[in-house]
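CORE FACILITY INTAKE
Project code: CF-77B
Contact: R.S. (postdoc)
Sample description: multi-component assembly, two entities in total
Requested service: structural model of the whole complex
Turnaround: standard
Below are the sequence entries exactly as provided by the requester. Do not edit them.
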Amino acid sequence: MSSRFPCQNLLAAGAALALSLSAAGASAEDLTILSLGGSYQENQSRYWFKPYAQETGVNVTEAAGYNFANLRVMIQSGNVEADLVDLSADSVKALSREGLLEPIDWDSVPESCVSGIPEDMRHPYAFPTIQWAMVMAYNTETYPEGPKSWADFWDVEAFPGKRGSIGATRPPVEQAAMAVNPDPQQLYPFDIDAAFDKIAELGSNIVFSDGYAQVVQFLADGEVDMIIIPNGRMVPLIADGKPVAINWNQHLRFPNFFVIPKGAPHVEAARNFLNWVCEPERLATLAKPTNYGPINTDAYGYVDEDVAPLLPGNPATAALGRVADAEWLGEHRQDIARGWARLGVR
Amino acid sequence: MADITAQLGDTAASAAVSSRLGWLKGGRFPVFLVPVLIFYALFFGYPLVRIFWQSVYGADGFTLIGFQMFVEEPAYWMVLVYTGILGLITLAITLVCGYAVAYWLVTMDKGWAVLLMAFVLIPFWSSGLVRTYAWLVILGRQGILNSALIKFGLIDTPLAFIGTNTAVVFALAYYLLPYMILSLYSVMNGIDRNLLLAARNLGASPMAAFRHVFLPLTRPGVLAGSYMVFMLGIGMYITPAMLGGPEQTTLPLMIAIQINEAMDWTFAAALSVILLLVTGSMQLMANRFLDFERLWGGAK
């Protein structure tokens, strides 16, 4: 079953080779980390995984790209190949409810790591790392004043132009709900059918895409003027000096966690890594390249002043939005899927 | 070409398996088929049985909840209907275009035909994802088509193609056209041209010779091509996902949403079984008035 992660063997071979060349006499401890791939994992690898391997001599193997469905099957079948998995909050909820995760040993986590983590993020089965946010981004040439709220996003008279969003896989129901009831703190629970009615109002003014990359491309190409997007996706455009800006009002934050799957072959090695990476200074290293915000607020002491305003959860903008209710969303996935099907046949 | 004939050959082989079960009544057991049968059983039969099983067996035991969810929600029926209509429209377009191209190819000089056949085969061999992306570049609001139309003063503001039926139908027809051309070409190529000459010799006009002699002989190719294009069309995922909007949600898209987003595998399996039953019943219907062995073997 080693073919479940096609690139794993190659990576393992590469990592083994690199280690045998650099860290002679290292201990033979192994650790396999499964993350989300892309530039996110490249940065994780550069700032977390590789320095850890170098410092401790642990054999760190990386694997990338899974979806929830095959991850769950992997754990259920007892054929676990990863010791640590980067997971979203809703997946954490689902897997921990099914008893598929090892508990986090919070007592063994260094005090310097724990103090900055908000109480509600100290999950018994998951260690919080970074959070991303679903925000509004817009073209500053089309809208010099800028839309200020989701109500503005839905106001095609005051803000003429096309809107872009990911479609079937994550219809913008929360944003639609906030366009009607603007207070993010009062967002949940909301009427999903009413939210789809609101989405339908936009009609041909909104273009739906299959993936976030395409949504960003639409904004970069001038295909659309306003998008709903995870904030990290805007990093390259902002770095290129494109005329785009982020509106943080009514944003939704989505925390990410490290979890240890039940039946992981190297549970101790995974815990050791968590106790290393959890230091605020290390968590902060990912902020600049990814624009994902550390959940540990102590980490902001190590983030550059010009980067902090771009991060979800930073003290200046945190109050404008909220953490998304992953549990509520998880319970209503089927309603959202059905709402999407209905949207098509109106 | 070799690719498609091999594919057709495979299907012919499995059709032969079901129609020639004579060895059960004392004939010789076709030993050479055993590896193929094992392969099919393992990698086709078993997963299929699993899907059926999963559609009626959830976490709490036997259930029909997946089918019930489909029946109770008219939006899902409409998704199924849309999927079928999309397949039929795509079929109509590829049939008209494919017939003309295939006829042209068989009537022209062989050297040129080989060269032009390459133009049919190159897109056939390239990735569907890349070819769908190409349509994004062409049909986008700032795309090639809109830029050209604006440059020539035909329109002032860009037209929205992405997220429309037009985009999905055209990209789908483009994607499936080689299947139609290849099945028609192989049949047309096997038709004895002397039959047409004989018809002309006996006083038929060129049009009458085509209608009464050539057209009926291409029937197997038309049916095989139509069958393949329709089946592939309704099962296609990438094209409606990338070029369509909410109105272009097809059943395969709905299945993917159920697996990855709604995480309801029972419902996803039920939807798969429904799609399978629809295509399966169409195959049965086709079997009623088609001789498959002759169809896949081409005109003889």
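Facility notes:
- Chain B has one domain: 2-297.
- DSSP finds 15 helices and two strands in chain B.
Invoice: internal transfer
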